[in-house]
Amino acid sequence: MSASGNGGAAEAAYASPLASLLPDGHVRAGTVVSAGGDMPLLLLLAAGASVGTVGWAAVGMPYMGALAAQGAGLDLASGMRIDVPGRQ
């Protein structure tokens, strides 16, 4: 989901509505997450995990909308979406 995260002001400024449900209040950087087809939940988890990181990637999610991702808090400039990853 993301390259690295060391905490800091950016993470402190982002308060996820899911914080009370997650270990340590957030998804750790580098964690692979599935939400069972619930796109809004997945986008919220990704937004929380990507705060203070170098970047994020969404692979094999052709129906993920850029506006919905941005609305959930993902920085589109630091992300990459690969709709069909291919065989390798």
Please, could you describe this protein's structure?
The chain is of the alpha+beta class and 88 residues long. The chain is 27% helix and 9% strand. The protein has 3 helices and 2 strands, in the order ααβαβ. The protein has helices at residues 9-13, 39-50, 66-72, and strands at 56-59, 79-82. The chain has a two-stranded parallel ribbon with strand order 1-2. The chain starts with 8 loop residues before the first helix and ends in a 6-residue tail after the last strand. The model is unreliable at 1-12 (pLDDT under 50).
In terms of structural class, how would the helical and strand content be classed?
A: alpha+beta
Order of helices and strands: HHEHE
Helix share of residues? Answer: 25-40%
Strand percentage: 5-15%
In spatial order, strands of the major sheet run 1-2
Shape: globular
The first-to-last residue Cα distance is 18 Å
Mean pLDDT: 79
- Would you identify the regions where 5 or more consecutive residues have pLDDT less than 50? 1-12
Largest β sheet strand count, sense and barrel closure: 2 strands, parallel
Radius of gyration: 12 Å
Give the number of helices: 3
- Count the strands? 2
